[in-house]
User: Which sequence fits this backbone?
């Protein structure tokens, strides 16, 4: 169980060894053509970057993964717990055509339909059901986490595809880690209300502030949903600590882009 870093023609991305049977990747900010403050691998449309640069960045990132950028399906994130079942009709939405939905999680069993979620500190999770050949991608910031979106996505895959949670493999990607996620009491209160005593190990009080382990909390939701501990991979990289690799909303504000997590059924590269 480990996250691996890859580099090709200056483009840097991560994969999880647990998801070795399915095409996937977690992007960094390195290897694209966008100008500051979107430098360089900006994969988030609609942030005042040159749309042609964003399309070229998709061409490059999708090229390393071996998927068709014109078929990507992009989440439209509103920090809620809506899960969208994606089909062939959604191919290209978000990059080549408008998104006629809002969804922080996407699931599909259609081949060659790359699902994309965004992060600039928030949790991003990828799910793979090797038995029923289905995948999911989840954006889980603290609000989505408190709303239980990881568990709701597992339940949606069970309802749509017959997925058994114990068969799923999951990768919890890079996000802001406990070292940098300092909050007031509202975040711990929301997590405790949602998860009860299960939230306590991921909440550390330091003076008047709290430090929150968002990655651990999202993993806890997967365990609650029925996933096996050995089938959950977790990236230790902190988006706020590593501005060379990632964008961080907390460190950079709005003058930034976002990294993505992408997963697609089809030939594995």
Assistant:
């Amino acid at each position: 169980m480990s996250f691996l870093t890859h580099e090709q023609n200056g483009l840097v991305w991560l994969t999880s060894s647990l998801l070795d049977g399915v095409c996937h990747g977690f992007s960094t900010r390195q290897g694209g053509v966008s100008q500051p403050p979107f430098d360089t691998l900006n994969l988030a449309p609609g942030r005042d970057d040159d749309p042609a640069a964003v399309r070229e960045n998709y061409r490059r990132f999708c090229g390393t993964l071996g998927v068709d950028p014109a078929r990507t399906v992009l989440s439209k994130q509103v920090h809620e717990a809506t899960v969208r079942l994606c089909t062939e009709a959604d191919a290209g939405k978000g990059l080549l055509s408008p998104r006629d939905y809002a969804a922080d999680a996407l699931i599909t069993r259609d081949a060659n339909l790359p699902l994309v979620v965004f992060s600039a500190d928030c949790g991003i999770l990828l799910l793979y059901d090797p038995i029923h050949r289905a995948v999911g991608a989840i954006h889980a910031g603290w609000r989505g986490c408190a709303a239980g979106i990881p568990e709701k996505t597992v339940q949606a895959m069970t309802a749509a595809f017959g997925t058994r949670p114990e068969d799923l493999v999951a990768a919890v990607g890079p996000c802001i880690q406990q070292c940098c996620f300092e909050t007031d009491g509202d975040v711990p209160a929301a997590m405790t209300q949602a998860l009860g005593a299960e939230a306590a190990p991921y909440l550390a009080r330091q003076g008047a502030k709290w430090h929150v382990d968002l990655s651990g909390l999202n993993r806890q939701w997967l365990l609650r949903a029925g996933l096996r501990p050995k089938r959950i991979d977790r990236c230790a990289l902190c988006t706020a600590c590593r501005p060379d690799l990632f964008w961080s909303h907390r460190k950079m504000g709005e003058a930034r882009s976002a990294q993505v997590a992408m997963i697609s059924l089809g030939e594995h590269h």
